[in-house]
Amino acid sequence: LFPYTTLFRSTNLISNVLPFVIGGGIFSSFAAMAARFLGIDHSLTVFFSQIGAIGLKMILPVLSGFIAMGVADRPGLLVGFVAGFMAQEGGSGFLGALIGGLIAGYVVIGLKRITRSVPNTLNGLKPMLIYPILGCFLTGMYMHFVAVPIFSGVNRGFLELLKNLSKEGSIIVGALVGAMMASDLGGKFVDRKSVV
Fold this sequence. Notes:
Structural class: mainly alpha
Radius of gyration: 20 Å
Largest sheet: none
């Protein structure tokens, strides 16, 4: 049941996330250039900055949404997006979005199994009402009370660790990333590193 196909065969997942990374990054670069030549308060700078910020802010919801969709098919997409937005807003970052997407997918799978005995006349309500509402409620409860507090603390810990790294520590991190890239020449580990 563990979603190996979602996490370790994630070509489709990466391709769905990359446009937001690239588009948001490019417009943020345009904003930096405009701020340098036109000033930070210029309307063009603000315009580029808004587009770039929105694009980059969508990365975690899209990541989480398509993880959930990979686990539970289309009914998991909305629930995954909600989990990703909660991870984004709560500061739990990539780890929170990753776990949130998995939880969202499995919550929807659980709802599918529970509602198997629903009369056929009510089948139309499942994807339109039951899966979205109950899925968002249950996943939202998990994200609010469990994932966001835990992974936001983990993120803060990692950031403090990186800030306090000495020169030797930075060399170790660089060697680790280099080893990940060299170990499979652009395969699974590099995909994980690219998303992070």
